TrEMBL record:
GO molecular function: transmembrane transporter activity
GO cellular component: a single term: plasma membrane
Keyword Membrane among record annotations: yes
The protein's name: ABC transporter permease
Sorted UniProt keywords: Cell membrane, Membrane, Transmembrane, Transmembrane helix
InterPro entries: ABC_transp_permease
Transmembrane segments: 6-31, 43-61, 67-89, 96-114, 141-163, 192-213, 244-263, 269-288
């Protein structure tokens, strides 16, 4: 069927793959944006993503409802976010160290609790067939968009607006830029950061639900492939801007879809090297944004402090 479109098969497959692959990146990066805007770093979102995927799949298997699975994943993410926020609120506790510890804890706990759910089949999340107008299977597949992708796109716009035009967004930004200024204004820095970390965990958990209930649509121990950690680099690349997170997530998703797209048109020599494109992109972005000669525009002030 690839001959029907010729060389257009590759860009079409990349576009469709970008939509599918980008959704977990989008939710995790939006969650980390909220957390870092409040002045806290959470490297544990990889563990939250994996545990959310397990919780969603297990709940969907037991209840028969994929949306119950999404709710369970969000609740699990909130729990991990709350735990991270409370621990980091203690004196002389390092955000990065706690995040790494919770990442390992979340992954290990997901593997332990999820073993009984590797074989059972869970109901998938629904998708909207925007390619109904075409008779070509490639177009139909590329334009079959999951509901969570649309939710994530709308959420990126809503967060962008909220950070600029709402009191809650202003409070989060003040706490992230200057804890002393926030305290002088009468706001509880600890409370704001704990709530922001919880919100970030909820979104990361929902991103995990997408992985297990839609794409790839199963539960196994290698389901994440480091997407939670790559999303942290995505946030830096997007300069803590939710709208830019949406575009960057599509970029990462397109990079992840490049290998399968080349394979679909018969490229059989070295195509597997393109499966490493997301990791190469992450490394390149970290190098490009780590220059000591210039400050990171848009970075919350509290992230630059030794805490």
């Amino acid at each position: 069927m690839s001959q029907d479109l010729g060389l257009w098969t590759v860009p079409l497959a990349v576009i469709g793959g970008a939509i599918r692959v980008s959704t977990p990146f989008l939710f995790v990066s939006l969650g980390e944006t909220i957390t870092e805007r409040a002045g806290r770093i959470n490297l544990g979102l990889e563990g939250t993503l994996v545990f959310g995927a397990m919780a969603a799949y297990a709940t969907a298997v037991v209840t028969g409802s994929p949306w119950a699975g999404v709710a369970a994943a969000g609740a699990a993410g909130a729990g991990f976010g709350l735990l991270h926020g409370l621990i980091c609120s203690l004196p002389r506790v390092n955000d990065v160290a706690v995040g790494i510890a919770l990442m390992l804890f979340g992954i290990g706990l997901a593997f332990f609790l999820g073993k009984p759910f590797i074989q059972p089949s869970a109901p998938p999340l629904p998708a909207i067939p925007f390619g109904f107008w075409s008779d070509l299977p490639q177009v139909q597949a590329a334009l079959r968009v999951n509901v969570l992708f649309l939710v994530g796109a709308a959420l990126s716009v809503a967060l962008w607006w909220a950070f600029r035009h709402t009191k809650a967004g202003l409070v989060v930004r003040v706490v992230g830029d200057s804890a002393e200024a926030a305290r002088a204004m009468g706001y509880s820095v600890t409370r704001v950061r704990v709530l922001a970390t919880m919100a970030g965990g909820v979104l990361a958990g929902i991103g995990g639900a997408y992985l297990s209930l839609y794409y790839p649509g199963s539960w196994n121990e290698g389901i994440s492939s480091g997407q939670g950690l790559m999303a942290v680099a995505l946030v830096i690349f997007a300069r803590w801007n939710p709208l830019a997170c949406f575009g960057a997530a599509l970029l990462f998703g397109g990079a992840g879809a490049l290998g399968p797209a080349l394979q679909s048109v018969g490229v059989s020599s070295g195509y597997y090297l393109f499966y490493a494109a997301p990791y190469v992109l992450t490394l390149g972005l970290l190098v490009a944004t780590s220059s000591p000669d210039r400050a990171l525009a848009g970075a919350p002030g509290e992230l630059g402090l030794s805490r």
